[in-house]
Design a protein that fits this description.
It is a single chain. 76% of the residues lie in helices and 5% in strands. It is mainly alpha-helical and 212 residues long. Strands 1-3-2 form a 3-stranded antiparallel beta sheet. Strand 2 (58-61) and strand 3 form a beta hairpin. The chain is globular, with a radius of gyration of 17 Å. The termini are far apart.
């Protein structure tokens, strides 16, 4: 496998380990430990770690190791504030520029998301959510906005996994299905309104835990 593909594979594996909390927030890991967990050799692993560090998902500490970013409530609110703007931009563009091929993929994710929510399978739900996000980003035809918001979505998925799990999975699914339907119908206003609803829901969850 070419080195760049190995790097992408390492990134995908590490991202999933971060989201699903198998790499614990705030904990420091050695490079050797991460090589063992990801089953990836040193060079592509380091390339993936540099990307994760640039996205502030990890902190590389010289002579100590790799620290996984902590879950900070204040930071989470700032993330959602930024996501609100970028998500609206990307979703607005997706309603205008998505092709038939894009919409077919989005429709397939709708079915998988419904099944995952019904089965209370949070791992599968978040996996489909990521694929849905990527397809919406691609269909928006704005790589700058997509690259800026992608790591914010990673943090949001991890936050949901940590604090909510299967709780409220059904209501989250219903909002995403409304979003999907709006994109499939090229209904820009509805899609943007639902996007705001999703962010509002996440903000409420963060504020609830701040006040505990």
């Amino acid at each position: 496998m070419p080195e760049n593909n190995l790097s992408a594979k390492a990134y995908k594996i590490l991202e999933e380990l971060i989201v699903t909390l198998k790499l614990e927030p705030g904990k420091i890991y050695s490079e050797k430990e991460l090589m063992s967990l990801s089953n990836i050799s040193r060079t592509p692993l380091r390339e993936a770690l540099l990307k994760l560090a640039n996205e502030t998902l990890i902190n590389i500490i010289p002579r100590r190791g790799i620290q996984i970013s902590d879950i900070n409530m204040t930071n989470q609110l700032a993330i959602l504030e930024t996501r609100r703007v970028l998500d609206r931009l990307l979703i607005s563009r997706a309603t205008k520029y998505s092709t038939s091929f894009d919409k077919n993929k989005i429709f397939e994710f709708k079915k998988h998301m419904e099944i995952a929510a019904k089965n209370q399978d949070v791992n599968e739900y978040l996996r489909v959510d990521k694929l849905l996000d990527q397809t919406i980003f691609d269909s928006a035809r704005n790589s700058y906005a997509a690259n800026a918001t992608a790591p914010l979505h990673v943090r949001s998925r991890r936050f949901w996994y940590y604090f909510k799990g299967v709780e409220d999975l059904e209501s989250a699914s219903q909002m995403h299905i409304r979003l999907i339907d709006a994109i499939l119908e090229s209904n820009e206003q509805e899609a943007c309104d639902v996007s705001d609803m999703i962010i509002n829901k996440l903000v409420d969850v963060v504020k609830t835990h701040i006040n505990l």
